[in-house]
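Write out structure tokens for Acyl-CoA thioesterase.
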Amino acid sequence: MTKFDEATQAIRVEEGCYDVCLDPGYAIGGPLNGGYLLAVILRAAVDASPFEHPVSTAAQFLKAPVPGPAQVRVEPIKSGRTAAFARATLVQDGVAQIESLITTATLNEAEPVYTAEPAYGMPDIEDCVKLPDPKPESNMTLNAQMELLFDPPTIGWLKGEPSRRPESRAYFRMAEPQDPDPYVLALAVDALPPVVFSAGMRGWAPTVELTWHLRALPAPGRLTLLGSGRLVSDGWFDEDVEVRDSAGRLVAQSRQLARVGRG
């Protein structure tokens, strides 16, 4: 079991109820990363399902959970021959923190009938760069859990030279050797800095709603994350992320609605 597996494990205590312990190692200056939290919820939802994989997740972030004990409560809605539907709620101190609707199914290794080309072309990995290590007092512990190598123009904001387009692109892998799986993909779809940073805005950008789809089981190796936005307006922005595996296949896609960074 890897550190990530331990940090996301859900222990069944009774029908539809799972104990979890939210790990402080996945914080972004205080709040826990949304993709990490979804991975925790999905562990419970898949355990409660007759199917193996979380193919669609739609989550509303009602509050910002803090590290420590919590529960995931899973309520089955419907189960058929090829898919099952459930509602899963992350609860902490008796208060709902995240509400989600999850569809599970069992994917196989079938070749796609059609697949679109990547939204962007990435430079060679040797031409990509890391972000500077955060200062310990920043409480940006998430950075230590993964390795991101960025397409340089998308982190121009570090030097005060944002591209003025909402975008973020990087190669991704876990810091501890681990082949990507659906739970790693849940983290990956929310691993990039908010795309509004490249549009010239900074600060914590809380996610309000995030929907992501598991499209295929990923091959071993690095993932490629391609993030973009379409509209930044009235204090809100959207973020789309396309995830490709080491074989170039589309394995996950997401869209989230978030508040423009503040503070």
